[in-house]
């Protein structure tokens, strides 16, 4: 009987050891973490052994924080390593970051294309090295010539056209379209679309941008004070929208403000009636989907789009759905 009890005790001890080891998760392929160095950050994930770099013109503002969150979540879900590399609207820096990713022999590249000429040489090096490319956010018209598998984003001129129609339906007669980045063809396409959809007077204004909101606000205010006939302002960025709302008030203008893209502040302004609507391109998807598509391509030779971009917009957020979207924006996913 004593021998039998000792045997049972040994078995139980062995089982407890197995449970403890499993609980420690030493070999669990879902282990994740985040490391950062300067503005670049890395989502560390155990699983596939693949490393993807996302090199964008991000200024790390409210819009791009949602793109980043989508990319990080996809990296965790797919078990890949993500290198996030923002260039802060500097085309030369973006090219250098792409070159660095190629030198590091990443398994895939996700790249925004605000200025194709500045980065096409670097993307050619990536393609020559056998690194698959997916473009995101900007570059819907250039992704094929750059050798990308597909593009994830919205078609800017179509989105602008829809926004212009909504401004016209709201009774606006003259629109100021505020451009916050130089040499970003996508922003010009938005304003071109607004003009086409609006069918009336649309004036473009180049401003300092999100890196200097105070100056941007003053520039918009001065424009509205100089020409009282502007009764509509459309921003192309949620941070610029906030500046526009303040500028309209400071100029004692009655202009209606609309914007492209979302942030928690913009949604609050929509609910308050100080912003008419926001064009929603669902930027969380622009971070999330390229990582998923790259992994599918690397592991299963899958392609998407059929030679066309994968569209994430446009949609619209106005008073009718602002409360629902507000909850999601509070989680950083809209």
Major sheet: arrangement of strands: 1-2-4-3-5-6-7-13
Task: Let me know the number of strands.
Answer: 14
How much of the polypeptide forms β-strand, as a percent range?
Answer: 15-25%
What fraction, in percent, of the residue positions are helical?
Answer: 40-55%
Stretches where pLDDT is under 50 for at least 5 consecutive residues are 1-32
* Count of runs of 4 or more consecutive helical residues: 11
The end-to-end distance, rounded to whole angstroms, is 67 Å
Overall mean pLDDT: 89
Rg calc: 24 Å
**Biggest sheet descriptor:** 8 strands, mixed
Backbone structural class: alpha/beta
What does this structure look like?
With 334 residues, this protein is an alpha/beta fold. The protein has eleven helices and 14 strands. The chain has helices at 2-24, 62-78, 91-103, 116-128, 156-169, 185-198, 213-226, 238-250, 264-272, 283-300, 322-330; strands spanning 32-37, 40-45, 51-56, 81-86, 108-112, 133-136, 151-153, 174-179, 201-206, 232-235, 256-260, 278-280, 310-311, 315-317. Residues 1-32 have low confidence and may be disordered.
Question: Quick gist of this model?
Answer:
The protein is 47% helix and 19% strand. The chain is an alpha/beta fold. The longest helix has 23 residues, at 2-24.
SSE map:
Layout: H1 2-24, E1 32-37, E2 40-45, E3 51-56, H2 62-78, E4 81-86, H3 91-103, E5 108-112, H4 116-128, E6 133-136, E7 151-153, H5 156-169, E8 174-179, H6 185-198, E9 201-206, H7 213-226, E10 232-235, H8 238-250, E11 256-260, H9 264-272, E12 278-280, H10 283-300, E13 310-311, E14 315-317, H11 322-330
Parallel strand pairs: 3-4, 3-5, 5-6, 6-7, 7-13, 8-9, 8-10, 10-11, 11-12
Antiparallel strand pairs: 1-2, 2-4, 12-14
Helix pairs in contact: 2-10, 3-4, 5-6, 7-8, 9-11
């Amino acid at each position: 009987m004593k021998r039998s009890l000792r045997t049972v005790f040994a078995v139980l001890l062995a089982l407890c050891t197995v449970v403890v080891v499993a609980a420690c998760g030493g070999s669990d392929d879902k282990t994740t973490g985040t490391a950062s160095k300067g503005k670049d950050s890395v989502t560390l994930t155990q699983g596939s052994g693949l490393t993807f770099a996302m090199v964008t013109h991000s200024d790390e503002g409210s819009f791009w924080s949602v793109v980043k969150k989508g990319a990080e979540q996809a990296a965790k879900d797919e078990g890949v390593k993500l290198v996030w590399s923002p260039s802060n609207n500097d085309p030369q820096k973006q090219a250098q970051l792409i070159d660095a990713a190629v030198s590091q022999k990443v398994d895939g590249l996700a790249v925004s294309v605000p200025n194709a000429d500045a980065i096409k040489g670097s993307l050619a090096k990536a393609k020559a090295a056998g690194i698959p490319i997916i473009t995101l956010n900007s570059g819907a018209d250039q992704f094929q010539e750059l050798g990308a598998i597909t593009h994830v984003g919205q078609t800017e001129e179509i989105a602008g056209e829809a926004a212009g129609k909504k401004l016209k339906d709201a009774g606006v007669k003259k629109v100021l379209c505020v451009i916050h980045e130089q040499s970003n063809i996508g922003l010009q396409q938005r304003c071109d679309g607004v003009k086409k959809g609006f069918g009336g007077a649309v004036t473009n204004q180049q401003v300092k941008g999100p890196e200097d909101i105070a100056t941007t606000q003053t520039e918009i205010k001065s424009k509205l004070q100089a020409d009282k006939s502007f009764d509509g302002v459309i921003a192309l960025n949620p941070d610029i929208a906030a500046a526009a709302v303040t500028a309209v008030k400071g100029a004692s203008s009655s202009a209606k403000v609309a914007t492209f893209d979302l942030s928690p502040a913009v949604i609050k302004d929509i609910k308050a009636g100080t912003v008419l609507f926001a064009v929603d391109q669902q930027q969380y998807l622009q971070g999330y989907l390229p990582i998923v598509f790259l992994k599918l391509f690397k592991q299963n030779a899958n392609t998407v789009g059929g030679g066309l971009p994968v569209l994430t917009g446009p949609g619209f957020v106005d008073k009718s759905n602002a409360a629902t979207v507000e909850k999601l924006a509070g989680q950083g996913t809209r």
